[in-house]
């Protein structure tokens, strides 16, 4: 725990950025009947029935020292998905960084072997060598600022029925852009 707290206290270094990483599953739910139009002083009115349109997984990168975040949407949460988002972090979000400090939980897919399985040893070594992983202690995921940001995302953007992936991505892009502009 102290390791992560010390990491948060270090000044920002663009050659070694701090990125917090977490994920969340999201159900896609569509209305069966259209909700009633809101009137002044009335709460939203919608039917309790809905149509389930599957799930999507949200991978979230948060850089608390610069007030930036980035959300990726995948169909599932697998070792393959983890491997690809780590490559995305290294090659597209921070291609200039010498090393990236990554704070994340110790989920069964969050390890070096996920990268080896899908990219081979040489590419896995290239990606993993650019990452310094800091796992949150068991029962202390609250230390990961991405977990806090997922809670904010849920309240500000996902607290309603979202019927399909297109709507989900559109809403996430708008939320991400607004939060990043504020450097929240």
The percentage of residues in β strands lies in: 15-25%
User: With helices defined by DSSP (H or I, 4 residues minimum), what is the helix count?
Assistant: 6
How does the overall form come out from the CA principal axes?
globular
Largest sheet: 5 strands, mixed
Q: What is the strand arrangement across the widest sheet?
A: 3-2-1-4-5
Please give a handful of descriptors for the protein shown:
6 helices, 184 residues, alpha/beta, globular
Q: Could you write a compact summary of the structure shown?
A:
The protein is α/β, with parallel strands linked by helices. The chain has helices at residues 2-9, 79-93, 112-119, 121-128, 145-156, 165-182, and strands at 18-31, 50-63, 68-74, 100-104, 131-135.
Describe this structure in words.
Helices cover 38% and strands 24% of the residues. It has 6 helices and 5 strands, in the order αβββαβααβαα. The protein has a 5-stranded mixed β-sheet with strand order 3-2-1-4-5, sandwiched between helices. β2 (50-63) and β3 form a beta hairpin. α2 packs across α3 and α3 crosses α4. The longest helix is centred in the last third of the chain and has 18 residues, at 165-182. The radius of gyration is 18 Å and the shape is globular.
């Amino acid at each position: 725990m102290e390791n992560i707290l010390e990491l948060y206290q270090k000044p920002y270094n663009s050659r070694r950025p701090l990125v917090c990483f977490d994920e969340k599953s999201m159900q896609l739910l569509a209305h069966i009947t259209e909700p009633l139009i809101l009137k002044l002083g009335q709460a939203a009115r919608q039917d309790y029935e809905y149509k389930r349109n599957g799930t999507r997984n949200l991978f979230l990168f948060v850089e608390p020292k610069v007030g930036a975040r980035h959300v990726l949407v995948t169909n599932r949460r697998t070792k393959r998905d983890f491997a690809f988002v780590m490559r995305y972090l290294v090659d597209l979000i921070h291609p200039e960084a010498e090393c990236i400090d990554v704070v994340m939980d110790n989920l069964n897919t969050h390890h070096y072997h996920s990268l080896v399985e899908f990219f081979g040893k040489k590419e896995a070594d290239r990606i993993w060598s650019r990452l310094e992983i800091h796992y949150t202690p068991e029962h202390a995921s609250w230390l990961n600022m991405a977990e806090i940001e997922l809670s904010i995302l849920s309240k500000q953007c996902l607290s309603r029925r979202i019927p399909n992936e297109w709507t989900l991505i559109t809403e996430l892009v708008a939320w991400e852009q607004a939060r990043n502009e504020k450097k929240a």
